[in-house]
Amino acid sequence: MTKQERQNDPIAVYDSGVGGLSVLRALLEQLPYENFLYFGDQANVPYGDRSLHELRDLAESVTQFFIAQKVKIIVIACNTASAAALKYLREIYPDQVFVGMEPAVKPAAEQTHTHKVGVLATPSTLHGELYASVVERFAAGVEIFQSTCPGLVAQIEKGNLDGEETLQILHDALDPMLTEGVDSIVLACTHFPFVIPQIEEIVGDRATVIDPAPAIARQTARVLKQYELLNPQTLAGSRALYTSGNGADLQGMAERLIGLKSTAHELDWHNGQLISRNSVW
Ligand code: DGL
Fold first, then answer.
1. Total-model pTM
2. Which domain holds residue 154?
3. 161 and 224 share a domain?
4. Does residue 190 line the site of ligand 1, with CB under 6 A?
5. Which residue among 14, 147, 190, 216 is best mutated to probe the pocket of ligand 1, counting the most ligand atoms within 8 A of its Cβ?
6. Which stretches within the chain are classed as H helix?
7. Residue 119 forms part of a structural domain
8. Among 168, 187, 211, which residue terminates a domain?
């Protein structure tokens, strides 16, 4: 296939659920003429407590599904899956172009005045090699305070952005780090940008909140340019949503969270492979 033919192929975006929509939102702003295919693995959300092995298997099968859809690049819009599987996927699919999430410790370390930074991420992300290496490379002389915000991903999946449970989880995570004096808070889970207003309400002017999505969108544009894969069309591209959960739910959340109106197709996991739900019957 020629480069020109591939330029029109979609950009795939993958997360355990609705979190990757925060990255899709930034991608749509940065690359409006591209075609997009979003997959949320809502049959398996949350990913945050799953084993490395499980996360790699899931990400590998999702990659196979994307490759069968002829996508030109895969954006792993999930810190947990990126931490567990990105290196592995690049090894087993050397011809496939990937972009992944990396906890934004570097910008936080650059901007902190108190030399104290907060990181909100899932247990899997915080235990992974990627996070350890980012901290080692960029956070010398900076004290890091972490929280896994237990239950927050599930609340956001339910659309409960400002209910009592959500606010309690945020207070439990943020109050102790604010007391310690953090002035910069890294959102290292793609679900969390959807509660930035609630986080900012708690944090006030004591700390700034870092959402890495715009940087990931710029990185995706750079990589596409580097591979001469940018779509030359100047009309808004297509957007397709896929979920292993409930299509109507994802559709509703995409519209509510990022104003995207698009039909969601349902997929089923079948012997470790993603297949169209209708084709089961
Ligand atoms: N949105 C994901 C992340 O960035 C995964 C959250 C989860 O499923 O636990 O880590």
1. 0.97
2. 105-211
3. no
4. yes
5. 190
6. 3-7, 21-30, 52-68, 79-92, 105-111, 123-127, 129-138, 152-157, 164-180, 196-203, 213-226, 247-258
7. yes
8. 211
